[in-house]
Amino acid sequence: MSMTALAPMPVSSPLPSALAGRTAVIVGGSSGIGLAAGRLLASVGARVVLVAREAARLESAVAGVRAAGGAQVLGLSADSAREEALEQVFEQAGSVDHVLVTAGAFAMGALLDTPREQVQEAVDSRLWSAYAAARVAARHLPAGGSITFSSGLYAVRPVPGVPAAIASVAAVEGLTRALAVELAPRRLRVNALRYGIVDTPMSRGAFGLDGDEAVAEAGRSSLIGRFGTADEAAAAALFLMANNFMTGAVLDVDGGAGLA
To answer: pTM of this prediction?
Structure first.
């Protein structure tokens, strides 16, 4: 089919309320930003499918989304880096409109201290989870559907000691732009969220922050005087899902950290 024969991207309300009745699959939805996105989506009437590997955490996450008003929430256990596992997720989920990928570990270690084998799993989980999710989503999403990836501030403001992690999030940003162009004929949108430091279990572990006081103290020197909350970070994902004029964007959600 020629490009001129294609129908344009559908027009719909860009407000999160337009997500009511839509289905969003969240890959990495058992904690942190993914779980917060699930709660927010449930609050606007969306159907939520949480995907994660650990069954116990997933069960707890589903209960949390239900407590937030999610009458339609499903938890599915799957290895997010395996395409065949995600294909089964989509088959069980039924009709899907949006995909958010927050799965991915943070690969710690300086270059000369850390051989490839020590960071391979973390790098693979970040990049290949995004790639696998995109391949499956591209076969299932309707026109106007969206895929949203997660990146990080260090992709553009690198720090020493985490080169593999920085390389993996930068790769996700490149994948975002490439797929926004490649999937445009299908009228699918692909975006990424470039997060600053958000208070999640993963960031607390990565930075060795034990307790709320330690988090508050660590965030005091930032531009706005604190780290972001998971809800603040997740709200940006709902914006990208709802707004059909957004594609190929890497949206900074960093509390101004990119300016400092």
So the answer is: 0.93
Bridge partners, residue 160, by sequence: none
DSSP state, residue 225: S
pLDDT at 171: 95
Q: Tokens in use for 110?
A: 């300086």
SS3 at position 190: strand
Alpha-carbon gap, residue 131 to 129, rounded angstroms: 6
The residues, any chain, with a CB within 8 Å of residue 19's CB and separated by 6 or more, are 41, 44, 45, 46, 98, 238, 241, 242
- What would the pLDDT profile of 102-138 be if each residue is shown by its tens digit? 987 778 899 999 999 998 888 888 899 999 999 999 9
* Alpha helices (runs of H) in 151-222, residue ranges in sequence order: 163-182, 201-206, 212-219
Look at residues 258, 32, 30 and name the one whose alpha carbon lies nearest to residue 152: 258
E strands, 56-142, are 73-77, 98-101
| 81: CB partners within 8 A, 6+ apart | 103, 124, 125, 128, 129, 132
Q: Which domains does the chain have, with CATH numbers?
A: 16-200+232-251 (3.40.50.720)
CA distances from 114 to 108, 119, 157 (A): 8, 7, 21
- pLDDT above 70 covers a percentage of the chain that reads 98
